[in-house]
Design a protein that fits this description.
The structure holds two protein chains of two kinds. Chain A is of the alpha/beta class. Helices cover about 30% and strands about 25% of the residues of chain A. Chain A has a domain of about 100 residues: P-loop containing nucleotide triphosphate hydrolases (Rossmann fold, 3-Layer(aba) Sandwich), CATH 3.40.50.300. In chain A, the strands form two sheets. In chain A, strands 6-7-8-3-9 form a five-stranded parallel sheet, with helices on both faces. A four-stranded antiparallel sheet of chain A has the order 2-1-4-5, covered by helices on one side. Chain B is mostly helical. Classes of the chains: A alpha/beta, B mainly alpha.
Chain lengths: ~210, ~220
């Protein structure tokens, strides 16, 4: 198991005058699955984006540490995996081309063995040479999981991970979340009861509005 | 190496979607055709042809070079890039892509002007090529930065030339001056001051782009 931690220090976010959440202080560690829950528009995705370093908090700080050493923002991308409904891959490339380009842009050698293993796990191996523009929404969602897991990250962000998935797809995702949660730090932002049932701790965003 | 990977991804994507190449090619052909029709049988002076050459380059750049970032924003893949590479890698990868596009575009325009305009006569070719190289670099560097700024705006098409005009104006004016010198056959040593302006412009814009890109890219 890796020794990875994510710390929110007084994290506050506002959009203009609208307060999304304030003074979040939390320490999240590897080997756990954390849930971010709240009604629609409560700021779950915003908190996930702040945690992943995609947007900045209005106030406060987010610290990523691996083996007790702080990770600088420029190096964070290779430590994390990210799945969300607002993430899109390249439709003009095939599934495998997407994975090759993404690995190379990350500065990593394309791990074809791992890619084939993940494509098999998510039932996409037979479609690896097909363009993503021909994929269904469920297949695209499964591709996002391969994108998130290909480089074996230490921290995983799953924002609404089971959207567009059928029962078999959901079961596979739950299996992945449980397995990853044993060795890495997993964060799930969702309203689904079945998704939250996997979490060891749940952060209610509504509690940070006052 | 990762910068080259961003370029390769963009180039392969461009060859399949032809977002920028088609826009640039059509704009170059249409603009040169309009100039030829409007000039008719009139004799156009050499210096005016040199000026028209940079006008075509400026507006062609405005039609296609924003695609590097706008296409990512339109396809929703900006987040994907943010998740897989550091901002500086993306900036230099996109800059390299725009540099290649600008050089292809400018060489095509030079060839078309040479073939279609009788008064397009360059006496000092080395001065002209040096100006073309520095000018193309300047256009690519500033266009990349402006494209990153406007990509998130709703009125991308309007904002790009509006924002680019004051930034590219000193560059285009210097390039027009240098083209005039090259057409007159002036020596490179006589055009030293103008060439240094181009070098300074390129260095300042590249440095500003590198320093500002992190802020533009993140929020």
């Amino acid at each position: 198991m890796t020794n990875y931690s994510l710390t929110f220090q007084d994290v506050t976010k506002t959009f203009g005058r609208r307060l999304i959440f304030k003074n979040i202080n939390q320490n999240l560690t590897s080997g756990n699955i954390y849930g971010f829950s709240g009604r629609n528009g409560s700021g779950k995705s915003t908190l996930v984006k702040i945690a992943a370093g995609i947007i900045s908090p209005t106030k406060g700080k987010v610290i990523h540490q691996n083996e007790n050493k702080e990770i600088i923002p420029e190096k964070l991308h290779n430590k994390m995996g990210f799945v969300s409904p607002y993430l899109f891959l390249y439709n003009e490339f095939t599934a495998e081309e997407n994975l090759i380009h993404i690995s190379k842009i990350r500065g990593l050698k394309y791990n074809s063995e791992n890619a084939e293993f993940l494509l098999n796990e998510f039932n996409l191996y037979d479609r690896k040479n097909d363009y993503l523009k021909g994929f269904s929404s469920g297949m695209l969602q499964r591709m996002k999981f391969i994108f998130a897991l290909l480089h074996s990250p230490n921290i995983l962000f799953f924002d609404e991970p089971t959207s567009n998935l059928d029962t078999a797809g959901k079961d596979k995702v739950y299996e992945i979340i449980e397995n990853e949660g044993k060795k890495n730090l997993v964060i799930v932002a969702t309203n689904e009861e079945s998704d939250l049932a996997l979490c060891s701790e749940i952060l209610e965003i509504e509690k940070f509005k006052n | 190496m990762t910068i080259i990977s961003v370029f390769k991804k963009d180039w392969q994507s461009e060859l399949r979607t032809r977002y920028a190449i088609n826009a640039l090619a059509m704009f170059i052909l249409v603009t040169i055709s309009v100039i030829l029709f409007s000039v008719g049988q009139e004799k156009v002076s050499e210096h005016l042809t040199g000026g028209l050459f940079w006008v075509v380059i400026f507006f062609s750049a405005m039609s296609g070079l924003s695609r590097a970032f706008v296409s990512e924003e339109e396809r929703g893949t900006t987040l994907t890039l943010q998740l897989i590479a550091a901002p500086s890698t993306i900036y230099f990868g996109k800059l390299f892509f725009n540099l290649v596009l600008v050089f292809i575009m400018n060489i095509s325009i030079v060839i078309l002007f040479y073939l279609l305009f009788e008064s397009y006569i360059i006496l000092n070719v080395s001065l002209f090529l040096l100006s073309l190289f520095l000018g193309s670099t300047g256009i690519a560097v500033s266009s990349t930065l402006i494209a990153a700024i406007i990509a998130k705006a709703n009125t991308k098409g309007t904002l790009y030339p509006v924002l680019s005009f004051p930034i590219l104006l000193p560059l285009i004016l210097t390039l027009m001056e240098l083209t005039k010198f090259a057409m007159d056959g002036d020596l490179i040593s006589d055009s030293y001051a103008e060439l240094m302006v181009l070098v300074s412009y390129d260095v300042i814009m590249a440095t500003a782009g590198y320093m500002l890109f992190d802020f533009i890219w993140k929020d």
